[in-house]
Amino acid sequence: xxxxxxxxxxxxxxxxxxxxxxxxxxKMSEQYWxxxxxxxxxxxxxxxxxxLKREDKDVTGKVLEFDPPRRLAYSFRAAHxxxxxxxxxxxxxxxxxxxxxxxxxxxxxxxxxGSKAFESxxxxxxxxxxxxxxxxxxxxxxxxxxxxxASA
Amino acid sequence: MRRPEFVYxxxxxxxPEKLWQALTIPPAALNIEGFDGP
Lengths: 152, 38
Hints:
The structure holds two protein chains of two kinds. By secondary structure, chain A is α+β, with helices and mostly antiparallel strands. Helices cover about 30% and strands about 35% of the residues of chain A. Chain A has a single domain (about 5-150), classed as START domain (Alpha-D-Glucose-1,6-Bisphosphate, Chain A, domain 4), CATH 3.30.530.20. The radius of gyration of chain B is 15 Å and the shape is elongated.
């Protein structure tokens, strides 16, 4: 059985600097990431946290790469919903400026076969990244009805 | 060897009706001035 890997590409009419800023800014992430917040000082090896609005345990990790506005990577360990036993996975963002738009590629890998976290993030990333696109292009954010009702 | 398959999900702030129109109405068939979507 091969190791699962999540890959997603989205094009955003913005600049690489703005996309990179949105990916690393706590206040901006709270807007488009259904109330969750990315928190780190973004030094290599420093702690990374995704503060989950609707869970009592945060996603934690470490900053692996920080190369604005081109590459960002952090390890990612979820401790809620039965995922605490899994080893950390890895999230990598790659930004490529193409004229007036940005090609944003996210790879989330280093999962064990059968990983529950893989299933969870595979459902979450399309919403979060669509919301990021709407946020940067139109100043609007999207919602995750399943997420908001499941934990309510 | 598994047959390759491409799957992609995106979320859009619109209605299913408007999205359906955008997916199915060829631009040449549209009376652009009278078309208020998508």
